[in-house]
């Protein structure tokens, strides 16, 4: 299932983009900042857990120096 960017007026999705998609943080203060920065008033009433589970922001909305690339081992 593709991820869609939650930022206002961004139509990127993971099916048609090579960009990384990031989950909203569960930390309430950081999550609140993400919601403010993506300019979506309809997300303001959502809990951090809901946002983390159902919404993503694509890498376009972050400064490149803020993105750390790590490898996950399963």
Brief digest:
This protein is an alpha+beta fold and 74 residues long.
Biggest sheet strand line-up: 1-2
N-end to C-end Cα span? 20 Å
Can you count the beta strands? Answer: 2
Taken together, the total number of domains comes to 1
Mean pLDDT: 88
Weakly predicted, low-confidence segments: none
Oligomeric composition of the shown chains: single chain
User: Can you write the helix and strand succession as a string?
Assistant: EHHE
Main beta sheet: strand number and arrangement? 2 strands, antiparallel
Radius of gyration (CA) equals 12 Å
Helix content: 10-25%
- Indicate the proportion of strand residues: 5-15%
Number of helices: 2
Secondary-structure-based class equals alpha+beta
Shape: globular
Protein name: THAP-type domain-containing protein
Organism: Sinocyclocheilus rhinocerous
Pfam family, one: THAP
GO molecular function, one term: DNA binding
What does this molecule look like?
The chain is of the alpha+beta class and 74 residues long. It has one domain. It has helices spanning 28-37, 48-54, and strands spanning 21-23, 56-58. It has a two-stranded antiparallel ribbon. The protein is globular and about 30 Å long. The two termini are 20 Å apart.
Task: Output the keywords.
two-stranded antiparallel ribbon, 74 residues, 2 strands, 23% helix, alpha+beta, 2 helices
Topology, please?
Layout (H helix, E strand, L loop, with lengths): L20 E3 L4 H10 L10 H7 L1 E3 L16
Antiparallel strand pairs: 1-2
GO molecular function, one term: DNA binding
Protein name: THAP-type domain-containing protein
Pfam families: THAP (PF05485)
């Amino acid at each position: 299932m593709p991820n869609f960017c939650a930022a206002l007026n961004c139509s990127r999705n993971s099916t048609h983009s090579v960009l990384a998609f990031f989950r909203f943080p569960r930390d309430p203060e950081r999550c609140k900042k993400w919601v403010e920065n993506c300019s979506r008033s309809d997300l303001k009433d959502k809990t951090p857990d809901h946002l983390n589970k159902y919404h993503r922001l694509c890498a376009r909305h972050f400064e490149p120096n803020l993105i750390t690339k790590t490898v996950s081992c399963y």
